[in-house]
Amino acid sequence: MNIATLPAVSTDTLRDAILSHLAYSFGKTPEAAQIEDWRMALSFAIRDRMVARWFEATRRTYEAEAKRVYYLSMEFLIGRLLEDGIVNLRLQEQARAALYDLGLDYDAVLADEPDAALGNGGLGRLAACFLESLSTLSCPAMGYGIRYEHGLFRQSFHDGRQVEAPETWLLQRHAWEFERPEARYRIGFGGQVRESGGRAVWTPEEEVDAEAFDTPIAGWQGHWVNTLRLWSAKAVHPFDLTSFNRGDFAAAAAPEALARTISRVLYPDDTTEQGKELRLKQEFFFTAAALRDILRRFDSEYDDLGRLPEKVAIQLNDTHPAIAGPELVRILHDERGIDFDTAMTLAQGTLNYTNHTLLPEALESWHEGVFGKLLPRHLQIVDRIDDAHARAHPSRGFSMRADHQVRMGELSFVMANRVNGVSALHTGLMKETVFAELNALHPEKIVNQTNGVTPRRWLLSCNPGLSELITDTIGDGWVADLERLREIEPEVEDAGWRDRFAAAKRANKATLSDWLGETQGLQVDPEAMFDIQIKRMHEYKRQHLNILEAIAHWQEIKDAPDAGWVPRIKIFAGKAAPGYAFAKDIIRLINDVSRVVNADQATREALQVAFLPNYNVTLAERLIPAADLSEQISTAGKEASGTGNMKFALNGAPTIGTLDGANVEIREHVGAENFFLFGMTAPEVTARREVEAHARQAIEADPRLARALEAVGSGVFSPDEPDRYAHIVENLSGHDYFLVASDFTDYWRAQREVDSAYADRDRWTRMAALNTARSGWFSSDRTIRGYMDDIWGAKSL
Ligand code: 26W
Asked: Which residues are modified to N6-(pyridoxal phosphate)lysine (predicted)?
């Protein structure tokens, strides 16, 4: 079968395929079918058209003895897969028409699919975008992760407070996985290590099986299909009949329940490592299973482990799979008999590590007690790795084993061939801060790979209106070569074209307004400016700076209601880690402000505030195309990159932001005149922290800020509990580590510039269109090409 053209699929063919799956795969007649049955039947019909290419990709990779890329990640924030499959196979028209013929609404069938929420935020979504780009670039690759039974918790609000509930995606049938009972590996924990015959022999005391579930990941045009292999934990002996026979049913079921715990639920923390043993168990479980699977495949092709670095590139998505270093050395040395130094060198030639955060509390380090109890042999190997590195670098001043800890950042760095940051600023800060000494010892190791996002999901699929205009203007080559968006730039000078651009945005805003009305009871004027901040809740992301500006804005509107304010709706969405009280209080404050401001008849035409519950990939796809303003307001030096910022720019929403993470590069690409910059730079942030009472000073210098804080502190938004937010005001007037007070005045200034720019519709449309035209570089295809060339040495087939 030649790979060139996909067999054309007509509406009739697809409709018949849906009907046959409905009957033969789900045993349903059209009359009896539920919406889920139709969704599953359509999904199977689409999946069928991926399978041939999947087999082809596997066969060609073996045939070419190609170097393989393995992406190890604790998180894959996939979202929905049906529309992504339809869009990548270019079957929208046929799918929509086929369902229409069957009396079904395309959007309603798609909306029945639950999100695969197997991630917390940026790191997990990046992994999902990377897999799609790896397939689009026909790069032989596999993702390895955990098949959590429960993804990121469902968020709802009770009296404005976040309430968490278990996420239950697997309660509905899942069309996008193939169970692989034959791909099953025994994973051990705990136990003893003893010497025999000059070799260390580890005898685990607890064992669990890792069973594979494969998901096909199709790229653009479905030319190539790679595999995402997720491991599910299964009991070695699932049922204890003896206990059952003596009536102890709980004991009988215990083994199965205990084993399942390992892949039961995603840890909902995205910045603070909890040091929980189960988390380390999860990290070792999927990493060890992945290495087993990788070496089984390698052994099936090659008989010289010396070629491992030549044929295999493993990417560690942050330190979460860092145990891969010691585990690979253990297998090569303890099991395969390769001497320690060679085993270490082979591992170092195969592994690479991406750092996604500089937040000290997010850098994983395990107490040697917890680590040694669970992984006694690995602790010994970490010590030998640390000793070997110390011997090679006697002048070094650090140890990965300081203070009875196992520091996973340093371990990953030492065991990696290449270490990369995720934006130019972040990579620079890595060299100056957390990895300064290691960078000095290994100046060649750290490289930058600025993040990217897949244009298929984040433009073509979620914004068909704008995509159509672009394709009408420059053809559809941009979908696989996003920097071709530059070709629309000359059209921006044409008033007619600008009108079509504005009309596409306007239509998206009308669609969102209808949805906000139907689902949130919000009456929103699509003419108003849609000002959106959507991301995980965290102090460094400064959602509290945003709501403080909203409060000051509201107060100013009340002072001068007829001052010709630009109507604006501030939309927030984002989850807080369940244990992160301050972030949860910011959510509650925003909901309290929203209640008061939206009920204020005098001001509600000019300003509304809304916090949408249960932010996830699908909600992002609904909000971003309708955005006018992208809020990227983190304290400079704290957001490693950001990827939402890229999605907004691509969808024609200018940014108000600081010089942080990839904002710096977005501003360079779109032009300073198309970016609303404010705030201190990273070096200024460091200097400002040294200033005595910096927050108090800022508040005294800005009566607008003082007044807004006063309102929060005195209970204007919590009349039934006036001091509900006293601790937030105290923090922002005192320690204010993230410099909300010090950046407020400039943020206010920038927001007023946004108002005047938005009021000049033609100027705004130009800025918005130029953001789209000049953001092509932020495609994850460009990012993956960088990894292939600079880190993996992998080729497209
Ligand atoms: C141990 C708990 C934990 C879990 C996840 C700590 C840290 C994480 C992630 C590294 C947090 C994360 O998602 N980082 C984000 O990664 C994105 C992709 O590179 C960046 O764009 C964001 O700036 C960064 O915050």
From this structure: 647
